[in-house]
Amino acid sequence: MTTTAPPEPRSQAQTGPARRTAPGGSAAGRLWRAGRLPLAAFTLLVVVAVLVSLGREPFPSGYLEPGNPDPNGSRALVRLLEEDANVTVTRGSEAAARAVERAGDDTVLVLFLDHRLLPEELDALAGLAADTVLVQPSLRSLNAFAPGTDVTGRAHEGRTLEPGSDCELPAASAAGDAGVVGELYSAEPGTEALGCYPADGGSALLQVAGPDGTTTTLLGTGAPLTNRDLGSAGNASLMLNLLAAEDVVWLRPDPPEEIGSATLWELVPPGLRWSLVPLALTLLLFALWRGRRMGALVPESLPVVVRAAETTEGRAGLYRSRQARDRAVSALREGFLERSLPKLGLRREAGPEAVVAAVAARSGDDPQTLWPLLYPARPDPYAANDDAMLRLAEEIDQLAGRLR
């Protein structure tokens, strides 16, 4: 039997160089290993952001807003009231009236920011058969809900007030000191009212009994209802006792919406509109008067050369037509002084004494004679008539000749 030996393995020299694999593997593997950590971090951030956004509650904002957790909101008080009562939050007078009508006999209407309501809306709410708590009410609300009461002062000092020894309101007596520093109210004689937390000028809390057995409570500040001050002093006890009822209607009116717009002319009162008519006619007549034309325009080439003699004759004719002898004699003296002062070494600002002295020294004339000639008194004797004016011209001409 013949056997065949197995073939011997060939060496690398015989088979040639073996195929090698790149040290980092394929390109896709390198890309995956380089980007897996940033991708994982980005995915984690996206998941966390989605979870946070799903758990976030969009809280409203605003003063005494029942769902606002900010310091000036009232979310804490509303949550406490909801444990024992049905709290209905409304944004308008009609919705509040419907909520009161649907509620039972034990209902309290809480009204904030009543200045946003119209007078007829306040009257409709005042006619509801329900106890009402007005927080810092306006004068319109006082007239509608509690006639016979008025704002008579304001407390500024301290952070809390005492109920007072004569306070007969159980809610205030049980609460003790409370942070009700704000407006103060008083009731007229004959008005059935209970006042607590007195200060100079009135009471910070006043409860008025209505003819139908309901009560209206006036509170001079909204601080005890806010999240910031609810836990201070006896604020929580006071508010929970004042709002103790089976149904609480929380009315916080929204700001009134702007409907339409008016032009500037529509805002002008009718009486003022009619007064503008004669004013416009007056302005029109004034424009026509000032804009009238005196005739056709005459073209003239400028400048116009006029001989000095013609200018002198023209001015003399104007003086003669108006009998302006005073202006004529004044022009004669001014012309003489203007020509003579430089010769005398004087300036135009020189005083009369200096001028008369210099002229007398140069001409040899008596200064007493020169004074009435150059600086006459009033009335001027040389302006009396034409002969006097001509005599002045001759004397000035002779004086000018002596100064040469």
Give your account of this protein's structure.
By secondary structure, the chain is of the alpha/beta class. 44% of the residues lie in helices and 13% in strands. It contains 15 helices and nine strands. The strands form two sheets. A seven-stranded mixed sheet has the order 1-9-2-3-8-7-6, with helices on both faces. The chain has a two-stranded antiparallel ribbon with strand order 4-5. Helix 12 packs parallel to helix 15. The longest helix is centred in the first third of the chain and has 29 residues. It starts with 11 loop residues before the first helix and ends with a helix. It comes from Nocardiopsis exhalans. Keywords: Membrane, Transmembrane, Transmembrane helix. InterPro entries: DUF4350. Pfam families: DUF4350. This is DUF4350 domain-containing protein.
Number of helices: 15
User: What oligomeric arrangement do these chains adopt?
Assistant: single chain
What's the overall geometry?
A: elongated
Q: Biggest sheet, strands in spatial order? A: 1-9-2-3-8-7-6
**Helix/strand structural class:** alpha/beta
Q: What is the terminal separation in angstroms?
A: 175 Å
Elements, N to C (H/E): HHHEHEHEHEHEEEEHEHHHHHHH
Poorly predicted runs: 1-22
Q: Please outline the major beta sheet.
A: 7 strands, mixed
Radius of gyration: 53 Å
What is the helical fraction, as a range of percent?
A: 40-55%
Overall mean confidence score, pLDDT? 85
Can you count the beta strands? Answer: 9
Strand content: 5-15%
Organism: Nocardiopsis exhalans
Pfam family, one: DUF4350
Transmembrane segments: 37-55
Biased composition (Polar residues): 1-15
